[in-house]
Design goal:
Elements: E1 2-8, H1 14-20, H2 27-32, E2 36-40, H3 49-61, E3 68-72, E4 75-76, E5 87-88, E6 91-92, H4 93-103, E7 106-110, H5 111-116, E8 129-130, E9 134-135, E10 138-139, E11 156-158, H6 165-176, H7 192-195, H8 206-210, E12 281-282, E13 285-286, H9 295-308
Parallel strand pairs: 1-2, 1-3, 3-7, 7-11
Antiparallel strand pairs: 4-8, 5-6, 9-10, 12-13
Bound molecules: iron/sulfur cluster (SF4).
Iron/sulfur cluster binds at residues 199-200, 203, 205-206, 209, 224-226, 231, 233-234, 252, 258.
Length: 320
Amino acid sequence: MANLLWLQGGACSGNTMSFLNAEEPSACDLVTDFGINILWHPSLGMELGDNLQKLLRDCISGKIPLDIFVFEGTVVNAPNGTGEWNRFAGRPMKQWMKELADVAQYVVAIGDCATWGGIPATAPNPSDSKGLQFLKRARGGNLGTDWKSKSGLPVINIPGCPAHPDWITQIVVAVATGRAAEIEIDEFQRPKTFFASFTQTGCTRNMHFAYKVSATEFGQRKGCLFYDLGCRGPMTHSPCNRIYWNRVASKTNVGMPCIGCTEPEFPFFELMPGTVFKTQTVMGVPKELPFGVDKKGYIALASAAKIAAPAWAEQDIFVV
Ligand code: SF4
């Protein structure tokens, strides 16, 4: 039986909503099939007031072993580093977070806010928010660069705004069933199994990307969303086109550009209409190119692709 505790810092509850929609495995399966004991979760736990404080203190003292500590939301440090703007169960949440992280076997940060600071940490960052071990792309965060949990692992980061439900439950199950050693993490402490590939990997519009055939409106069934509509699929690490949302679709296959919500810099262009869904160009060349592609290579590839594009690439190939 693995004890799991889930707390929320500065959060919109988006990752909780995502978690409650998990299917493979579901939140219920965690309890019934994988022996996870959810000590408390903001949407599932009933303990309030003194009882909740006692539960948290018992975890910190070691009376209740804490196997998996999940943190959702940003760590608020304002004002003046006290964290008083985000009080929970009688104390600043940042204090609970640190003391519980220090006694947990594994710590998992869910969503952009817990991993990188997220939207609240965007400049000017009035709440002085940080992620657990990062502030955007900079190492450190609230716990510090060298911090490790009792198991010897740093915080396992599962970014996204929100994170996909199955990314959350699959990692929690791997940890709870003693397979944490199999979770390879990258330089940003993300599980490589989910974040080594790009949103573009598996996108149904890849042929249109290759032939430089552009979609010019949301929802168009033909065309790639990179050239005009600002799709960040080639620069964003996520498996959104390998593990579909609700088992049905991804943004890009229904004609909505990827907005790069798993990357530390998110939100790009502060999500302002007119910038976020518009490819920024200089002399017709996108300012941000697909990961690993240089300007010279892009220009050569794009000109050849345009010349080579077959007639069908301009047609709606999904006609029924
Ligand atoms: S740029 Fe976007 S729409 Fe185009 S192929 Fe890549 S992920 Fe799909």
